[in-house]
Amino acid sequence: MSLISARPPEPGLLRGQFLTNYQSNNGMFGASGLMEGTAKNGLFGRIRVSHKNAGNYQNRYDGLVYGSAYREYDINGTIGINRNWGYSQLYLSNWHQDINIVTGERDRNGRFLELVRTGINSEELRPVSDATLSGRAIELANYQNLNHTKASWNTITKVGSGNISAIISYSQNRRQEFASTLTPGQPALYFYLQNVFYDLKYYFGGRNGWDFTIGGNGLWQHNQNKGLQVLYPGYRSWDNGLFLFAQKKTDRLRINGGLRMDIRQMHINQLYADSNATFAERPFRGSELRFSGLNKTYANPTASFGATYKLSERWTVKANIGRGFRAPSTPELSANGEHTGTFRYEIGSPNLHSETSWQGDLGINYESPSLSLTASLFQNRINNYTYSEKVFDRFGRDSIVDPSRPILTYRYTQGNAVLFGGEGQVSYNPQSARWLHFTTSYSLVRSRNLSATADSSRYLPFLPPPRLIAQVKFTKTEAGNRWRNLYAQVEVENNSRQNQALLAYGTETQTPGYTLINLGGVAT
Questions:
Q1: I need a labelling partner for 522 at 20 to 30 A (CA). Which of 93, 210, 324, 341 fits?
Q2: Whole-angstrom Cα distance, residue 121 to residue 478?
Q3: DSSP class per residue in 12-40
Q4: For residues 188 and 231, is the Cβ–Cβ distance under 8 A?
Q5: Please, are residues 302 and 323 in contact by the beta-carbon 8 Å criterion?
Q6: What are φ and ψ of residue 94, in 5° steps?
Q7: Per-residue model confidence (pLDDT) at position 1
Q8: What letter would DSSP give residue 238?
């Protein structure tokens, strides 16, 4: 997926936008306001402020579900300049979310329970009141506080016969999880992650139909534990990559390909634990070394090649093949403790290898002034696919690390896997009625864990169901002297039953099909 920044307005133009939405199930109200403008000398600016606030959602089985309320705040802005030599812009944003955590705990009558402080060092579960269920309050003893701040500088300028582009950004992510009434304001888990990203490219001027790009990019990460508990140790990582990309265009054929070399250097702190399953990155009374730390380097080449050929003025075929690479993450390498979000004991493996993959896809397109058709098939073969599996003892029973906390144990392991599927889309915008747009699309993704030993674990997790989307949109460029870019749309989204779920260990369940109807409209 590629995200393209919105273009600034034309010079001398100042404009605004206000959007709002409402969801009846949880009473969610959202609002977003935008103001942007460009001066005649090329200077431009944009600012957007957004807010969401929702109560507990409800379903046919539980009614209102305690612990599902949330609220969000977001502010972001851009300032920059456009000139003949190129452009340069600075982007700033801050996103904040407070979200309750649904635990599902109930009394014998089926009523939801909440934690209540009963003394200096004591707390207990009590039934949730009707007022709390129907309210929007964030439960301070059981919620996540998420905050993401980012600053990014992006510029592109002409140099010689080509262009050079540069992106440098810094982001800070703070994730706090609160789990007790006895420690108000003190998060049980607090991950403090900092990122510095850079991307430098030089685009050579095209010659004889050839275009070349060389460049490099990298990411520095530093994650620290600042909470009362430690889920996995802090780490530092440093990714760097160099690449060369080339493409050739003729009247009927377009080919492109690239080569890339990536290196990841990782340093992971040590992890200590005591008999009460208390974890820390430094030794403490009664603790023993659970993870000795890690310094490791992963390196892999990747490549891709693609071609597009025009069979006629309206028919085009496309084909691509590429090799991918992913180094293991810190939890996969070093986890050795209870994950409070999944309520299971996770064990990492410091000997994991890099994931590598080969993917190929084939597609065909038809394009006419009124009708557009696309269809494609793909397959992705993954070697050293990393996943977690349940750990059993020598008698075939569930392995329990801490008898006082009888939660199941999972270990990260590797095997081979394959993903395959296809998608198609039909778009109709008749020449005689450009105000009418009709689009329908279908997508299907299937998977196999080739290392699975049981039918219940043969599928990969988190796969979307087969999906069919149909949309009718009506547009009008202007209405009177005040309104511009009007449109109204009706969209029907049908998600089929997903019966290819990862059933092993109760990880997933098969889900029934459902249909969503979306209505929308905008005027500026």
A1: 93
A2: 66
A3: T-EEEEEEEEEETTTTEEEEEEEEEEE-T
A4: no
A5: yes
A6: -145, 120
A7: 46
A8: E
Rg (CA), the chain: 27
Question: Strand, helix or coil at 109?
Answer: coil
CA dihedral sign, ordered 447, 449, 450, 455: negative
- Answer whether 34's CB lies under 8 Å from 16's CB: yes
Measured in degrees and rounded to the nearest 5, phi and psi for residue 382 equal -110, 125
CA separation for the pair 191, 281 (Å, rounded)? 13
CA dihedral 339, 344, 345, 351 (to 10 degrees): -80
pTM confidence score: 0.75
- Which residue, chain included where needed, has tokens 């674990």? 457
Which residues have C-beta within 8 Å of that of residue 49, sequence separation ≥ 6? 32, 33, 74, 75
| Region of 182 on the Ramachandran plot (φ > 0 left; ψ -120 to 50 alpha; else beta) | alpha
Mean pLDDT by 10-residue block, N- to C-terminus, for the chain (524 residues)? 67 91 94 94 94 94 91 96 90 95 86 86 88 89 93 92 94 92 86 96 86 95 90 89 94 94 93 79 86 90 96 96 91 78 79 94 96 97 90 73 73 93 96 91 96 88 94 83 82 95 85 93 78
Q: Are 87 and 81 in contact (CB under 8 A)?
A: yes
* Rounded CA separation 442/424 (Å): 5
Distances (CA, A) of 124 to 114, 121, 187: 8, 11, 19
Two structure tokens written together for 413: 């392991």
Residue pair 73/51 in contact by the 8 Å Cβ criterion: yes
Residue 108: φ, ψ to 5°: -70, -15
What is the predicted pLDDT for the residue at 433?
87
Q: Which residue do the tokens 């039934």 mark?
A: 127
Q: How far apart are CA 425 and CA 421, in angstroms?
A: 14
- Looking up tokens 């949330």, which residue turns up? 70
In whole angstroms, give the CA distance from residue 131 to residue 112: 13
Kindly list the distances between the CA atom of residue 92 and the CA atoms of 15, 48, 67, 148, in Å, as whole numbers in the listed order.
20, 11, 32, 11
